Amino acid sequence: MTDPPDARSPGASGNRKPPATIYDIARTAGVSPSTVSRALNKPGRINARTERRIRDVAEELGYRRNPMAGALPTGRTGTIGLIVSDVTNPVYFDLIHGAERVIASEGHTLVLADAQESPDTESETAERLLLSVDGLLLVGSRLDDARILELAEHKPLVLVNRSVPGLPGIVPDPLPGIRKALDHLASLGHRSIAFLSGPATSWMSGVRWETLLDEALRRDIGIVEIGPGIPTLEGGRQSLRRVRAARVTAVVAYNDLMAIGLLQAAKAADVDVPEDLSIIGFDDIFGSSLTTPTITTIRSPLDRVGETAIRRLIAELDEDDHSADVTLFTEFIERESTAPPRAR
Amino acid sequence: MTDPPDARSPGASGNRKPPATIYDIARTAGVSPSTVSRALNKPGRINARTERRIRDVAEELGYRRNPMAGALPTGRTGTIGLIVSDVTNPVYFDLIHGAERVIASEGHTLVLADAQESPDTESETAERLLLSVDGLLLVGSRLDDARILELAEHKPLVLVNRSVPGLPGIVPDPLPGIRKALDHLASLGHRSIAFLSGPATSWMSGVRWETLLDEALRRDIGIVEIGPGIPTLEGGRQSLRRVRAARVTAVVAYNDLMAIGLLQAAKAADVDVPEDLSIIGFDDIFGSSLTTPTITTIRSPLDRVGETAIRRLIAELDEDDHSADVTLFTEFIERESTAPPRAR
DNA sequence: AGAGTCATGTCAATCGGTTGCCAACGAGAG
DNA sequence: CTCTCGTTGGCAACCGATTGACATGACTCT
């Protein structure tokens, strides 16, 4: 507004300040660099007065520890990598926040990376990150077990929403939410439903389907799988044809995005939701309470999942093997997209 | 599903493989480490046959360049830091994707960081990142000019949706979108509108308000500012009281989140949108086309903004001063939340 | 006074890769 | 046959911080 881009201006590029090093501090404080290092990191090792003086000088010079230089001899960077199958997927918001909270409180730094839904990108990103972080958190990984085990050979690794034998993984138990959801559908009178599955490479989609299948059988509800599909609005929209062909009265979608897509397509095709078709999603993303009708869904406590996963990873780093594993559960959230099926 | 957590399993923690170094390669290839370094990075400097042999050995040993070690002497990490005021704000999705695309194609690595809407967190994060990246991209920064200039003293820095004299900044011109929006409201018959402003620290909110004010005056439309408010659903909801008190027929909100919040509150209070109240947002986030009615909004081409900003930053790194600055424009998107005001 | 303890600070090696400078070598020119 | 020059590869210093080993000096105890 009041800021015409100014050519010969302050802070412009060019002459950059080289950051202060412990050598600079040592020189102006009149001690040796190793003393500076110890004064800053080993409380008590150095005389209190000397330490005070060193800290003051450091402050004055605006000293910041160079993470690269520090990481070289110690092999520790104080950094944790979090690779998400898609950072812009609303599902992971709470998870990211949960992870951030714990990481900050433990004094580590978070490096977020995006796999952009591509196993290749994910693999490459993981490999690149591997050497510059202390540990890796893989969320909703699309990699196969072998590749994940390979990565885990180099650095501690924790999985979220994915399980690989021998590796720590945090997966909320889908059962409670699914049970409540099926009880809900059954009590409304639905006898025949469909599951809109996600990508074939999604381990989580498989888990959800298997659990639904079990529980539907147990309740004598008919169930069919429709898919695999892409886990997006568009994927949900595309499935409407097959949903109608299947003549089911209710659909459980792999995630809310697909559920919303299906809802949009249904609206466009004059299929009333929930009267003609009940829809249930998974994840309770931002957006599933914005639609009309709002989406009934099964949510995971992803903020707690994020926290737990990071705690687990940090324990791994510190070789603290007190894996006091909390179990986390999914939860059924009834909203407006489910109702008794219209009598035929 | 078929994966009972197994205790004595492969890839378990403990014995980790130390990564291969250029010294390992040098030893098995029978050359000196410096030759390896040159073979890998200075094409042509080393005899083609020797280079071939070294590359093969490197491949075989699964060698990965240690980014820390490499960064120490060169001062370059091949990494770019992107600090977003809130990673989970849907506004920035396209921007992040745009940035990712360019960064990947230029062979750099993206480090995403979240300021969590807090200037303190932002400042701290920026400082921590500063030493481990080659350049910094600040998106929607909440820091004051002085602090930003301070950060820019150490590393190249580019701003998005923010302008500080002397620093490169990418800000799409709000004028085209706002003009169209006001023309639209005027043609519908609105004579008196309100702007729901964002946080007082938001530079962008100021720009939007000033532009609206100018253009409203020019069209002889009455306009008042309501705010500052928090830029969330909740912030939008809370504003309903003041909106009604102001007796305006249309509201332009600082962003879509607030617009949606206002819409929800209006629904709950039996105020019909758009008949009783027209609402326009900014940003066109995921979600603003999910509501009923869908939200009319003014969008920025954020994917292009992201691309442009990264290009600019990389040019800065390479001292390429061919700042072929593209100008980017906002765009008006008419949806369902605007209509002629109900006759009183 | 001499031996033993402890607190304090320094030396120098190390992490892995980069790079300026030099040495060895072979080829072509005169 | 010597001289010059370009090619190829090695030596060693350096980036900034960490850390084991050690020197110094003060202090205690007998």
From TrEMBL, chains A, B:
Keywords: DNA-binding, Transcription, Transcription regulation. GO terms for molecular function: DNA binding. PROSITE patterns: HTH_LACI_1 (PS00356), HTH_LACI_2 (PS50932). InterPro entries: HTH_LacI, LacI/GalR-like_sensor, Lambda_DNA-bd_dom_sf, Peripla_BP_I. Residues 1-20 are annotated as: Disordered. Gene3D superfamilies: 3.40.50.2300, lambda repressor-like DNA-binding domains. Residues 20-74 form the HTH lacI-type domain. This is LacI family DNA-binding transcriptional regulator.
